[in-house]
Specification:
The complex is a heterodimer of chains A (about 160) and B (about 190).
Chain A (H helix, E strand, L loop, with lengths): L4 E2 L5 E2 L14 E4 L4 E5 L6 E11 L5 E7 L8 E4 L4 E2 L1 E5 L8 E2 L6 E5 L2 E2 L3 H4 L5 E7 L1 H4 L5 E13 L1
Chain B lengths: L4 E3 L2 E3 L1 H14 L13 E12 L3 E4 L15 E11 L5 E7 L8 E2 L7 E2 L1 E5 L8 E2 L9 E2 L15 E7 L1 H5 L12 E6 L1
Antiparallel strand pairs in B: 1-2, 4-5, 5-12, 6-11, 6-13, 7-8, 9-10, 9-12
Classes of the chains: A mainly beta (about 160), B mainly beta (about 190).
Amino acid sequence: MGCPRVLPGGMILVAALGGATPAAAQQIQLTRLTDFAFGTVGVDADISSSKDVCVSSSGVLGRYNIVATGSGTNRAFTLAGAGAPMAYEVQWSGTAGRATGTALTSGIATTGLATTGLGLNLGCVLGNDSASLIIVLRSSELSKATAGPYTGTLTLLIAAE
Amino acid sequence: MKQNIIAFGKFLPGRAVALLGLTALAATPAAAATNGALGATSTGSVQITVSVPSRVQITGLTDISFANAEPNGPAQSAQNNCVWSNTATKGYTITATGSGTGGAFTLASGALTPVSYAVQWNQSSGQTSGTALVASTVSGNFVSTAAVPTCATTPSSTSSLIVTIAQSQLQAMPSLTTYTGTLTLLVNPL
């Protein structure tokens, strides 16, 4: 930025000699995550659970992508327990309150999502969730699993677009 | 510095505060979910837990028919079936119950004297002999080789049910007379 010059009449001219002022990097935040505790389940039917989460963004359009990874071998979506790892499915919807969504692949970004939680934290503080995280356990996995408890961790990375 | 807290209108010493805090923590289920921090990217995580109960299933049973059984020897029928168990040992027990008095393994034909039969179980398929089962009594331990319920994948069967009518019983039966009964098999995971 150049030095201000005093013009006749008291006006001050500030000349921008450099490039345009850099825009602030978009900020994004994933909150209101809760655990999925299925309890003791039957083994002859699929079971799923959907939980609302909040994605807030400083971007005008609120666009983001998401990468999910599991705690299994090679970041697979599997639960560890009494027997062989139990595979599960992960779905994501860019809208809260949904029971189904787009299937996520471990380590692969799902792009082109947009949140309604614009303005950092505002929507989340008010409890206005903006996305759904869905976990599906298939009967094909449950029926071949050794009886006992299984657990795993799902990590979600979102990035502003 | 001594801290105090007001509880129900009374002052409690600082030590009591700590005890109250511990009680509250113990009653709260452990939560592993973590929210993401604000930034160009944000990472959060959730814990997923599920418990699979012990389950068994017996399938592939078919009716047994001894048509025109010759009384010059015993009549025997062996059939393959599937027992699936999801316990760590894939173990199970069987309790067989007949439709005779007190769960006896007998076949009935009106007022005629019931005809008894014997039941055997083998934890392998394709067998013509096995462990003798006692009516209404829990068997010894068996092990399943089924990978999934109903043996939908290999192996297609896991076990054998063998029913035998002794020659002496056949010879006691009037000719051209039908005897019927029901055999019930209760499988428990082990």
